[in-house]
Amino acid sequence: MLFNSYEFIFLFFPATITAYLLLGHGTLARGIVLVVASLVFYARWDARFLILLLGSIAMNYGIGVTLQRAMLAGRLRRADLFVALGVALNLGVLGVFKYASFAVENLNALTGTDLVISRIVLPLGISFFTFEQIGFLADLRRGAPYRLDLLRYAVFVSFFPRLVAGPILRYNEIVPQLEHDAAPRDPRADLAIGLSIFAIGLVKKSFFADGIAPFVSPSFNAAMSGQPVDFFAAWGGAIAYTCQLYFDFSGYSDMAIGAARCLGIRFPENFNSPYKSASIIEFWRRWHMTLSRFLRDYLYISLGGNRRGKARRYVNLMVTMLLGGFWHGANWTFLVWGTLHGCYLVVNHAWAAMAARSRALTVFHASVFGPAFGFVLTFLAVVVAWVFFRAPTLGAGLAMLGAMAGQHGAELPAAITWHLQSLAPVLAALGVRTGGSGTQFIDTWLWIGALLPIAFLAPNTQEILARARPTLERGPSRHGWPGGPAWAVAAGLAAFLGFLSVTRASAFLYWQF
Amino acid sequence: MQRPGLYLVTLGCTFGVLCMVTVALTVAVDPYYIFGSPRWPGWNWLKPAAYNRVVAAKTYLLERVRPRTLLLGNSRIEVGFDPESPAWPAADRPVFNAGLSGRDLRISAKVLEDALAVPGLRHVLVGVDLFDFLKIDAAPAPPGPVDAGFEQDRMRVRPDLSPNPGRLLARVKDMFAATLTLDAVTDSFATLLAQHRAVAVTMTPHGFNPLDEYRAYAELHGIRDLFDQNQAEYAARFPRYPHPDYADPDRTPSFRSLREIITTARANDLDLTLMIYPYHAWVMDLLRQNGLWNSFEAWKRALVRVVAGLDPLQRVRIIDFSGYNQYTTEPVPAPGDIRSKVRWYWEPGHFRPALGERIIDRLYGGRDDGFGHDLTPATIDRVIMSIREQAGLASAMTVEGGAAAEAAIRPETSLSIRPSQP
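Above: the input entities. Below: the structure tokens describing the complete assembly.
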């Protein structure tokens, strides 16, 4: 079931809220309502995989309980064994469903064998609930004093607003909010805040992301089929995808955060205007923040982080980003994407270290030019990397990059060149041809022209609703949304615009991961 | 938060009021003819957005028109026959044009089945197009109804002709899609704006596309430009067509759909006429130049064979308007001549309603002036020979059409007519 579907908006979600408000008094009742609703939500996609989800919950809960007992008894080696077992089992299941076909395909290519594996359907959300449960076991091994019971654990893993695409939560971020003695809040206020966040997310997904989506595929499809793509079409496709992915995933995250808040539960922040970043380091503090946090806490730090010298730190960064890329999908394109970001981060850290020792670079960074340069460079680097994230094959990604480098020249539609007649000699000198679809060109760049300023300049959802403490990280604020009638009208307008755009529910891009 | 209750009420009311205003606007404008709202000049008389949901629009219009005569086919029917033309005999009106641009007989068969549920239907005119019959299956098709490849949920019958229980839900969905969606809102505003433009695309309530935008373009740039553009497109496409011999017509989806149409028409005692379009001679030349002439003739023979097999009493009429005659060889203005008019054609592939009226005259017993030959097992050879002769005679007269497409023609193709298959 998609958040941006009539089924969710008009049936499932109102029914869940009603049941939660009517029946959800006390931890047990709240937990039962949420687990039942979450299982129904998951089963609407494919009921067969409920067994996998429930099995995963039972297995990890069992390992977690045993692990915690071992920790309390001071039997650390036994605890280590259980962590290793839990991680191996979780990664094993993920590997079978997500990477088996990829592995066989590449083994065949390498060895010339002809092994065949039947097509495996990737269970929805498996990457997310696998990571969360690995994090849970690691937290227990690090001595986290979690209060365990099966119902709480089932809510932690299955809670529908973030079951299939995050945000990636920690056990102690959600479970304490279910306790009957959790700080009392006004459910109407939660509903008002949650619906407002959800409405903004719906607009971002259904109006912005789905609106620009048709202008992404043509250039990528053309590159995939070996057709020459001109400079403007290639950049148009790549930047349109940059916009689509951001508004799609941050819109989804807003809807998840809003849906949870309607039920009185706060989530951590997942996006903080990443395209405003002036460096790649900053970008990863703003983009898919809960994944970055997971990779940092459970992978990068486990590998040694920055504690073993500069060279090892860079290796750890590369490994973390490479695996982070591979987590997104079983395709070489994701490995290239992760590698690119690993390289970006290494360069960024090296540059920062150099800048700290250089007076000239310090002055440059303190001037207006430093951040501006960093902003442009970061954005271009991110766009280039997204090409591999979107391209179906490495070849298609390389073809797109070639096109973006001007390999097939540049082309402007006649409707544009006609208006640029005074620049005709300049365009001719630059090798800009006349041709291509005027409508496609103009619509693509109009959409980009409308959405990029929003991504670059507009306050994000959490900033707009800062006063309502929309996420766990956001403390009380005097800024933003005061919650008066004018804001209610604005939220109603956003909900209406988002609702109008839900003509044909399209899946969120991150659901495929 | 001070007053969350008030906030929620205000949010809900804003949402509700906006929904109501939107529903009122979209129903009043009715851009897709879904609701049958009154048409007012200056408000919603022209319906450019009807083509965005063309199948739905024609399904609902057909129910309202309750036609006595139904026209089926592709864009050649859609732009070539005005159902409100005085040429139609009064006894056979109302007429509805269910021609659908870019669609083939698979959808025509389904539209006919759906139309039977509307009382009053007596006559069916189906345009049959060689180019629809050039899609050949690689393997024999499985038995059972042909997949029409389009949304059938709103139809009265399912593919197996049993009543469609999902129709009501589908219609509710249609109404929803025609009101509370971004497309419906933007199309409603596009409809309002179109009323004040000099030229706008539109669909009449009888399903006809008057192609006003072609008229305007031709006045500005000359009709020759339209001929050249379309001829170049055909010339690029024709070399890619296969050259079937139609030994097994059922390998062709359109033949299977044609069987469905004939069977349905006969079972319901409808007067059925199959019409081979009057392609302009430029198109006929391209057929020859691309080696498709044999397939063209084999297709006609297969048509006669299939119809005779299903209708031994010859109640189904096949009439062939193709060939080189006084209409199809209408001269085209020279390049650069933007003043001269063409009376019968928009471009080589699409005839104007004026020629549609000549066809109507011929269908309804008008004088046989060599335009339109009845095809039966007894006449097929004579008609084919006659058109071959016309082709030989007319080649000099139409060589210009070939020249316009010369660049796109395969060099190995021959202008001479190859011997016909027996």
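Note for the figure: The mean pLDDT of chain A is 91.
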